[in-house]
Amino acid sequence: MFKYDKTSLKAEEFINDGEIMDSLKYADENKNDIELIDKIIEKAKLRKGIDHREASVLLACEIPEKIQEIYSLAEQIKKDFYGDRIVMFAPLYLSNYCVNGCVYCPYHAKNKHICRKKLTQDEVRQEVIALQDMGHKRLAIEAGEDPVNNPIEYILECIKTIYSIKHKNGAIRRVNVNIAATTVENYRKLKEAGIGTYILFQETYNKKSYEELHPTGPKHNYNYHTEAMDRAMEGGIDDVGIGVLFGLELYRYELAGMLMHAEHLEAVHGVGPHTISVPRIKRADDIDPDAFDNGIDDETFEKIVAIIRIAVPYTGMIISTRESQKVREKVLKLGISQISGGSRTSVGGYVEPEAEDENSAQFDVSDNRTLDEVVRWLMELGYIPSFCTACYREGRTGDRFMSLCKSGQIQNCCHPNALMTLEEYLMDYASDETRKIGEKIIEKELLKIPNEKVRKIAAEHIADIANNNKRDFRF
Ligand code: SF4
Ligand code: SF4
């Protein structure tokens, strides 16, 4: 008998292997049970989510009509919750020094031929100016785990530097942080430094595989890693971002585990994950994705995105430039709400693209377009690229953010914020062609703000941005 308890604070009880195996068995036994599948889809239509067992059944189901129904519902939920908005961000790699031995990552300690780099504060400044000049307002900072080279003090200093830089009309308004699992005390320090979301990927929820994939270093400790979000929340961070690296383990196991993690956070802390990321393993220095035999094809990947969308409607979903333009286009429709653009995955890569012989990148980028090209592409597909960071700056995090979502006011908030921040982008950074397309979209989309007063104020602010060089309005 196994012990599964979503309210437990012990990793192996809230991510319970027995419960996952049981859920997968249940899914296999019921994957052709149309009555049950219809019941689950009906429940998902209430937009309050479905649990890991129900999601596992949908993932196992191979009936084409039912899969189509799942996709249509995912598209509808995406539209209802996120409209046509896509939030933009960029990663910023601070340091690739790392003491861990993760076998799928080129930064692993034993890789002697990768070029190791750590940005000085002056280099951080240069990188941030380059990012601001592209138009970015929201960053995700990334660093390997290395107590000597990248201690928490270094990360905190970088955050301070990033927020302090005001170059022309530029500003980084939200810094999300993706660093190794740490102590409650350090999470408290990150919170005090004003971070947005704390992001930590589980990589895999399967403990046995996890230990094999992380043979050395502090990350080897599965329980410490899996319980990190509880410590982060104890430290006062209430927006956390989770994810697995698809390709390491069986995807059905990972989806069940990831949803159990979300259910656990909701049960214990009253708020689920702010975001879920869906990276797939990619080629990089010293890493051959073919060496991992759990890779998933594009079709399965799309199905996973759709099921996450209906399972946790309030959770934002992120995709990076690991994925090609073609794949990104498909999953945007099914549930993705945040994408990166113009990314460099090497340390210092925004100021100086790397020479062939000094590869410090974490993975090869599949989507190499500039931010301007990505913004234009999104608008041509009918989306509204948004540079909004309003919630975090208005203190709407954690459950306050969730109550905004649940109150249905998001259309009166996110929509005008998206249009105002897009106008800033168009005025300060866009090419002529992008600007022309954007102006038309803003004009049309303004009319869709339901509340008349909000619509009027948003129009005034947009005119102020265009004509009076005013910036940083938000609802
Ligand atoms: S995944 Fe993170 S912890 Fe592991 S080697 Fe890469 S940078 Fe280090
Ligand atoms: S208003 Fe809040 S939820 Fe909406 S896009 Fe801005 S930051 Fe996100």
What does this protein structure show overall?
The mean pLDDT is 95. Helix 13 links the parallel strand 6 and strand 7. The longest helix has 19 residues, at 64-82. The protein contains 20 helices and 9 strands. Among the domains are: 83-239 and 318-368, Alpha-Beta Barrel (TIM Barrel), CATH 3.20.20.70; 407-468, no CATH class. Strands 1, 2, 3, 4, 5, 6, 7, 8 and 9 form a 9-stranded parallel β-sheet that branches. It has 475 residues and is α/β, with parallel strands linked by helices. It binds iron/sulfur cluster (2 copies). The site of one iron/sulfur cluster has 10 residues, from loops.
User: What's the CATH topology label of the domain at 83-239 and 318-368?
Assistant: TIM Barrel
Roughly how many Å is the radius of gyration? 22 Å
* Highest-level CATH class of the domain at 83-239 and 318-368: Alpha Beta
Mean pLDDT: 95
Instruction: Estimate the strand proportion.
Output: 5-15%
Examine the secondary-structure arrangement and name the CATH architecture of the domain at 83-239 and 318-368. Alpha-Beta Barrel
Name given to the CATH homologous superfamily of the domain at 83-239 and 318-368: Aldolase class I
Number of strands: 9
**Helical stretch tally:** 20
**What is the H/E order?**
HHHHHEHEHEHEHHHEHEHEHEHEHHHHH
Shape summary:
globular
The kinds of small molecule bound in this structure are:
iron/sulfur cluster
Short description:
The chain is an alpha/beta fold and 475 residues long.
List the helices and strands and how they pair.
Elements: H1 11-14, H2 17-30, H3 34-45, H4 52-60, H5 64-82, E1 85-95, H6 121-134, E2 138-143, H7 152-164, E3 174-178, H8 184-192, E4 198-199, H9 207-213, H10 222-226, H11 228-234, E5 240-243, H12 251-269, E6 275-277, H13 298-311, E7 316-319, H14 325-334, E8 338-340, H15 371-380, E9 384-386, H16 390-393, H17 398-406, H18 410-428, H19 432-446, H20 452-468
Parallel strand pairs: 1-2, 1-8, 1-9, 2-3, 4-5, 5-6, 6-7, 7-8
Helix pairs in contact: 2-4, 2-12, 3-5, 4-12, 4-13, 5-13, 6-7, 13-14, 15-19, 18-19, 18-20
The protein binds iron/sulfur cluster (2 copies).
One iron/sulfur cluster binds at residues 87, 386, 388-391, 413-414, 417.
